[in-house]
Every structure is written in structure tokens, then in C-alpha cells.
Amino acid sequence: MFNLRMKQLLNWSILIGFMLVTSFFFSQSAWANEVAENKSSVLPVRDFFRNPETAGYSISPDGNRLAFLKPYEHRLNIFIKETDKVKRVTSVIDRDIDNYFWKNDEIIIYNRDFGGDENYHIFAVNIKNGTTKDLTPFKGVKSNVMDELRCTENEVLITMNKRNPEVFDVYRLNVITGELKLEVENPGNFTDYLADHQGTVRIAYAQDVNTGNKLIYYRQTADQPFANILSMDFQNDMTPYSFDASNKEIYATSNLARDKEALVLFNPETVKEESVLFEHPEVDISTVVMSEKRNVLVGVGYVTDKLHRHFFDESMHQLYEHLQKRLGNDEFTITSTDKNEDKFIVVVYSDIDQGTYYFYDAINDQLSELSASAPWQNKQDLAAMQPIQYTSRDGYTIHGYLTLPKGRDSKNLPVVINPHGGPWVRDYWGYDPEVQFLANRGYAVLQMNYRGSAGYGKAFLNAGNKQWGKKMQDDITDGVNWLVSKGIADPKRVAIYGGSYGGYATLAGLAFTPDKYACGVDLVGPSNLFTLLETIPPYWKPEIAEFYERMGNPQKDNQLLHDVSPIFHVEQIKAPLFVAQGANDPRVNINESDQIVSALRVKGIPVEYMVKQNEGHGFANEENRIDFYKEMEKFLAKYL
């Protein structure tokens, strides 16, 4: 929730793993009979939500070893494969490891939090002797790797809010000794940083704490102070991504003087866009890919219905075309390479395939399968995700995805409306375990990118400003009406489910359109926008002015926030509700769920409440995920 950096300019691989009122009810026995008619295709809940068999393959810099994630004691840990030998190098048993990288041929860096508190620590594990060291052992402090520093052997740049919990400073961290050296002291409004190819931090991204305006600061050398070179209204954006090979100009995405975010070459000395390198007329640029070996621009990704690519580097273009011929019509992406960029990890994926990993040796043109993430799943049992669009009541085109249960007539179906979290992100085409689980149980699933979603230009994004519970919610309701008009949805059997902002949309749907939904499921959704804004993590304070502009200011927009907070409208809720919450959630405090559950129980509305004490903003641990979806299955069966 509250993803204000509207694009994640990472690898193409970031886009493939997309990691949550009526008088008529189907009876439990009727639902059971309906399922029994096609019993062989009903898959266990565990098959959708267990940890993958393997995931996250990565090649060592010298190309001689593979690292990957695999369950140990029901938690994802790091394993190493060298020739035919496999060994485990971490033994974390309370929480999955889901993010790691090779620092050098012997050291792997990973981060993890504790019980979902999002106060991440950075760890180094030596794969030779098996020792693991917590490099940021500071209680209540959040650390993030800012730059892996491929230019150095044993150092990385990290950001950490140790000095001041409200802001992140930049430190140079020695991964062998644990020595920390302060590189940039945050003056109070810096929110992100960019280093050049020599590891010098030269760009700082900031926000004015009073207006929400976005600011870019620049310096030529490390001994110079940062100077503000660009100021933008909060509704506009320029995101520096990487310096060019000369370390003089910057590749950035920008929507200045245009609606869609384009890839531009920006000169920080003249403060001008030197050229527009690529733009798409319908959507924003979503990813920028560089060659770390050559420091050259490789390509960009953009998402219309699916992920598409535009190449600047002919060698990489030819590599993708060659792999496409080898892999047929399957969707795929390259997720890892060695330092020489001649050995690659390739992931093949689709809407019905969680992902299969391959190793490709470009020198010998050898492509070999490593592992499927979920070998227990049969793609023939899963349902296709179809890109769709419909028109809102005031004329906006709303894009989304519709998944229909396999082997069922697509008429008069029970439906789960599934708005995404964020809200300033978007849904993508691809394998989604929640969607596949629900479709396997006989429900049609509609996901929509309502106004305020990222990816469709700044006009569409900013059309959601101060529209929580209003026009943003209308777009969701219009999706229900569209399904009914098509004859797909049984209007008496429509549920709404979402997490984070999607959980808010669930509560808003039940409160503001009480006759639309037979029931709702809210996972870590806020119910009271006043208390939500009061309890945001301290390190979000530099961005609070933008939150006020996009959601509403508690002082200036008091009536607005009251009108769109479901907690103040519980008398309108009629449908049963299932609420799930992590006790340690730093984004949506548990009080958000406690409030709505208490108010509904006083009113006598059926509400089920699940709290997991070792979770935060969503359920990360395997057993908690499975428990949640088992309860959701029973809840939906009862009320749909």
C-alpha cells in the first residue's frame, strides 16, 4: 500500500511474478454438489499457496555456480549448485528469504525482516565456510541495498534510517568486515538516490514536505554539496534510472510536457531532456534494462495487455529472438547473467505456468531445464487470464483481466471482484495463485485497473486524486455492472476481495454499494483514513504532503475523509465480511481491522476475523497463507 514511486524500474523479471448483500445464497450443500460434478479438477488449496519447489535462480559472477531458493523447514532458503553438488547455505526457519544477490563469487547478500515488521536487516553469507553475518544488527531500523556496486569487490551502498527514523541516509558497507561509512546524510526530504558507475552518489530524489512537489538534486563529485536542479508538481514525474557509460548524462523516465512516461536522455548540467529515446502512445514505460558489463542501455519494457519490449542493443535483441525460436510461443524473460554476460537464467512463464527455469550457455548454444517452480501443477487444470476493457460511467476506458473457471459455461457465474492494492500500481497478465485458486473453485475473477492505477499516463493516475471511495470505487462497481450486462455474472452471487487498498475497496464496496455484493473478504485493508494517515511508518513522513494531495488532508478535507471512511458507515453494511490482518503490519495498523470488526459485531453483522501474530502487511509464511485461503474457501462457499 502507498506505492508512490509509480514504476519499479528494475529487470524485466519484476513483471512475471505478480507477490494479495443479497437475500440469495448458495447453500453449502448446493456448492458441494456443484463441485462434485467436476471433482477431479478441484485441486488442494496447498497446491496454490505452498512455497515453490525452487525459485529465484541466479548465476555467480564467474559463471561457475548457481544459487537458488528452496524450502527448508517450510521456509525458502538459499542453496548453491556447483557441478552436480547441491548444498544449503542458510538455515532461516521463521521467515522466507525472498531477495538475495551475489556480491562476489563467495559472498551472497540477502535481507529479511522479523515477523512482517519491514525493518529489514542485511545479511552476508560466505558460501565457502557457511558463516552468516548480520551486517545491520540495529533494532527498529530499516536497511535497504541501494546499489550492489559491481565496480567493487566487497562493498555495497545501503540506505538506513538509523540516525533518524524518518529519513534514510546512505552508507558504504563492507560486506566482509561490516564497516559502515556515512556517504550522504539526508537533509530531511531525500527519498531515493542514484550512484554513477564508479559508486559515487550523485543524484538525490526528494519531496517537499509541505507541498508534495518532487525535487531532483545533483552533484558532480562526492566532495560537492547537492544542488536542487529540478522541481515538479507532485502530479508530474521524472525518475533518474542510470548514468550513461560516460557518467555525464542520465537515462530517466519522464512525463514532463507529456502524458505518458517516456525514456529520455537527461543532462543534469543543462537540466534538459537531450532526446526522447522511446515512448508508447497508450502506456508508460515500465522497465529499463542496462548491461552491467558494458554500462549501455539494452532495452525498455512496457505493458499493454502483456509485457512487450523495445531493444536498443542489437546483441541482446538477437539473443531474445534466438531464445524465442528455441522456446516456441511461450512467454519468457532473462533474470540473471554472469559477469561476462554469456551465461543466463531464463524463466518461461504464462498465466497458467508459475515458471520454469532454464540455464542458457550462449557460447555453446546450450539450453537446459533446471526446474519448474510448481511441478505438482498441471497446466491443463488451470484457467486462462483474458485481457479485457470496459467503459466507466463517465467515459474512462478501464483495462483489466477476466479469468473464467475452466470447463464451465461462462453464463450466470458466481464472481469474485478483485481490485488490486497500492493503489498507485496496476495489475498484470501472468500467473496469479489467488486467481487460479478462485477459478478452480468455480468463480469468475475480475481484476481491473481503476483510475488512479499507474501505467496508463499521468492523466489517468491523477484522475484518482481524492477519489478513494468515490470515482475509483465507481470504476470497480462499473466492472460488476459490465459483467452482469454480459450475462457472465449472476448479480446475486458477486463477492469482492482485496488486500491493502483492495481491502479498503472491499469495505467501501460493502458500505457504499451494499446491494452489489453477497459478501466481502478484506486482507489488511484500512477502514478509517484518519487513523491510517496518523499511523503511517515514520519514514513515509517526507511523502505525507503527496498522500494528502492524493487522498485528502485530515484538516482541509475532513468531511471528504469522513465520507469515504467505511468505519463511519457501518450502518449501511449488510453483507457478511471476512477480515484478515497481520499483527505487526507497519503500513495498515491492526487497529484498522479491529475498528471495523468491533463496529460490525456491535451491529450484529456476521464478521469473521483472522489475526496472525507473526505477520505484517499480508501473509508471507506458508502455513498462514494456506490457513487464510482455506477459511476464504469456506466463507465464499457459504455466502456465494
Distance between the termini: 28 Å
Main CATH class of the domain at 383-639: Alpha Beta
Query: Fraction of residues in helices?
Result: 10-25%
**Number of helices in the DSSP assignment:** 12
Structural class: alpha+beta
Fill in the CATH topology of the domain at 383-639.
Answer: Rossmann fold
Largest sheet: 8 strands, mixed
Question: β content, as a range?
Answer: 25-35%
Question: Strand order, biggest sheet?
Answer: 28-29-31-30-32-33-34-35
Shape type = globular
By CATH, the architecture of the domain at 383-639 is named 3-Layer(aba) Sandwich
Number of strands: 35
CATH H-level superfamily of the domain at 383-639: Alpha/Beta hydrolase fold, catalytic domain
Q: Uncertain segments of ≥5 residues (pLDDT<50)?
A: 4-40
Radius of gyration: 24 Å
Average pLDDT works out at 93
Detailed description of the structure:
The structure is a single chain. This protein is α+β, with helices and mostly antiparallel strands. It has a domain of 257 residues: Alpha/Beta hydrolase fold, catalytic domain (Rossmann fold, 3-Layer(aba) Sandwich). The chain is 19% helix and 34% strand. The protein has twelve helices and 35 strands. The strands form eight sheets. An eight-stranded mixed β-sheet has the order 28-29-31-30-32-33-34-35, with helices on both faces. The protein has a four-stranded antiparallel β-sheet with strand order 1-2-3-4, with no helix packed on it. The protein has a four-stranded antiparallel β-sheet with strand order 5-6-7-8, with no helix packed on it. Strand 14 and strand 15 form a beta hairpin. It is globular and about 60 Å long. The protein starts with 27 loop residues before the first helix and ends with a helix. About 6% of the residues have low confidence.
